[in-house]
Amino acid sequence: MKNRKKKSKDFAPIKTKIFFQTMLMVLAAIAFVYFLYQSFIYANFGNWFVYMLEHVFKIDYYAALTFYYDKVHRHMDLIIVLTMAALFFIIFRFYLNFFTKYFEEVNRGIDTLVKESEEDVALAPELASTEKKINSIRHTLANRKLDAELANQRKDDLVMYLAHDLKTPLSSVIGYLTLLRNENMISEETRQKYLSIALDKAERLEDLINEFFEITRFNLSNISLEYGKINLTRMLEQLVFEFKPMLADKNITCDLDAKADIMILCDADKLQRVFDNLLRNAVNYSYENTSIHVSLKSDTDRVCISFSNEGNTIPSEKLERIFEQFYRLDTARNSGSGGAGLGLAIAKHIVELHKGTITATSADGVTCFEVTLPTS
Prior knowledge:
Strand order of the largest sheet: 2-4-5-7-6
Low-confidence stretches: 331-337
CATH topology of the largest domain: Heat Shock Protein 90
Structural class: alpha+beta
Number of helices: 12
């Protein structure tokens, strides 16, 4: 109801102008018809017509008078009706010209959008609300274009960085394998050490290649949901269990605080990806010998899942951009934990497709990601 009132107020100026313009045309038409009627019925139209035939067309007076009574006076009603009809169409034509000029102005505004002009669209004062909306669309499109260009630039930079990063682990793998092949008298301890290093570098190489695939197939518009009823508590329990080897590498503990058998309607595979990404980030950016806390709370129609870890506080300017596409918190090229900068962007999109929200806070060495979802 409020939206309808607002739209009515938006178009009040143009409706007022059209109303008064229509009234003016109607009054002008009535006045002109009245003048014609008076001229045909009560004025000396017959005398004027006969005089014109006699002096302009050089017709004899009695012949002109006969022609007037036979051809004009006898059909006076029809002539008046036809004259009024012609007058109506002429006035209606002018009225349409007045009315359609607003559509022409809107079309010019749309052409400005298509041409991506930097100038604001200017319309008639009575179209102020439409002008404001068109300019708002223009600014939105310009911002989206700039965001897309920045995202593409970040993507190109990231591909370049990853291509550079591939050289380091690949060179290490080749170097240590070459040493193992060429050194015949190498000790078993040294052999195991070289193999361990080569394996670590090979695994890092695999991660980088996977990031290339992630960038190549990335397209948020292709993400669709397949809903089903799931036990959210068991999903989180399984996730924490699967991360035990990764947690053990940094001597990190992970505790889950959740009520038993909390059920929600969602896309289980997509939501699993969200939680996997959040827990993986928590492990990657946690201090060693600390703990990660996963909490699941619910009420009648919503659930709240939070992942908190102890690590470096994320600066506010980075926290504002952390869900952007291809934005990496750790921008170092040789970072072993920096991903392609897609995980959180995809996580946010999946959560929003579920009509939920995802937020991040970081203060005093504690970072927390919180996901809120409807239960159905």
